Amino acid sequence: MPDQAESLRRLVEHIYPGPPHKARRIAFLSGKGGVGKTSIAANIALALARMGRRTILVDCDLGLANVDILFGVQPKVTLDGVITAGRDVRRALINLPSGLRLLPGASTIVPRQGVSSGRLQQILHHLDDKAEFILMDGGAGIDEGVQYVAGLSDEVVIVSAPESAAALNAYRLIKVILSRRSTTAIRLIVNRAPNESSARRIAAGLARAAREFLDTEPEYVGWIPLDPIVAQAGKERRPFVEKYPGSPPARAIVLLAQKLAQPPPAPPQAA
Ligand SMILES: Nc1ncnc2c1ncn2[C@@H]1O[C@H](COP(=O)(O)OP(=O)(O)O)[C@@H](O)[C@H]1O
Ligand SMILES: [Mg+2]
């Protein structure tokens, strides 16, 4: 019986391998929602742009697109319009003063047939010569939309919170990603941690489980402290790296951006 896993496998096999590309595509995903993917992807993208690296941030959260809100911009054309209504991707790109370019997400929920059409892959190819880094803010969970974004990226940064439910769902997501494509580089950021040692503890637990059961482990990139300025900047519709540059989360983001800008880690060996 062609179960859901089978049809998903076919979908993702269809997507990858795509044609070769130059820009590094880094997807930010999580097993559980609300762990801080959008906050992290947006601020890392901005930090990279401020380091002079050509960066495009694509809002690929097909369920809850909200990157535009974090930057306080009101897009006229969104990814939704480009995917489903054939709008020109150049009209959707927003040039922010920092040099960062933003491809805003769907203002409404994208129909699933739009997701599986392969249009996002074409769009990424179109952006390929315009950026060194294409950061993709993706959704949460292990559903098709998340798998689709993972399948289009070279590297996946899994964001986890310190709670065990978030870590368990991060593990599940790693497992699903590896079951589709064993060569994806998987990295880990622990967000909202009370301190470094608790972030490291979560990362070590995940690495242990992944090593034992999946024969690989995510590369721990670092952590971001729990800090009310993150939500505060969100309310003010400004990235915290810009609004609160001296704050602990902003300093953490700059370190993470510097690490991510290094050449990518070697992907795990295919089984
Ligand atoms: N390090 C942090 N400290 C405090 N609050 C945070 C932190 N990271 C994210 N948040 C808050 O958590 C909520 C969810 O963040 P968001 O980036 O939208 O998560 P996701 O994209 O994973 O759903 C937001 O209100 C955000 O301000
Ligand atoms: Mg989000």
Helix content: 40-55%
**What is the correct CATH architecture?**
3-Layer(aba) Sandwich
What is the number of helical segments per DSSP (H or I, 4+ residues)? 13
Q: Quaternary state, please?
A: single chain
The averaged pLDDT comes out at: 87
- The residue ranges in which pLDDT falls below 50 over 5 or more consecutive positions are none
Class based on secondary structure composition and strand pairing: alpha/beta
Short summary:
By secondary structure, the chain is of the alpha/beta class.
How would you sum up this structure, described in words?
With 271 residues, the chain is α/β, with parallel strands linked by helices. The chain has a single domain, classed as Rossmann fold. Helices cover 46% and strands 17% of the residues. The chain is built from 13 helices and 8 strands. Strand 6, helix 9 and strand 7 form a beta-alpha-beta unit. The longest helix is centred in the C-terminal third of the chain and has 19 residues. It is globular, with a radius of gyration of 17 Å. The model has no long low-confidence stretch (mean pLDDT 87). Bound molecules: adenosine-5'-diphosphate and magnesium ion. The site of adenosine-5'-diphosphate has 17 residues, from helix 2, strand 7 and helix 11. Magnesium ion binds next to helix 2.
Topology:
Blueprint: H1 4-15, E1 24-30, H2 37-50, E2 55-59, H3 67-70, H4 79-85, H5 89-92, E3 94-95, E4 101-103, H6 112-115, H7 119-127, E5 133-140, H8 144-152, E6 155-160, H9 164-180, E7 185-193, H10 196-214, E8 219-225, H11 228-235, H12 240-243, H13 248-261
Parallel strand pairs: 1-5, 1-6, 2-4, 2-5, 6-7, 7-8
Antiparallel strand pairs: 3-4
Helix pairs in contact: 1-8, 2-13, 9-10
Magnesium ion is lined by residues 37-38, 61, 64, 66.
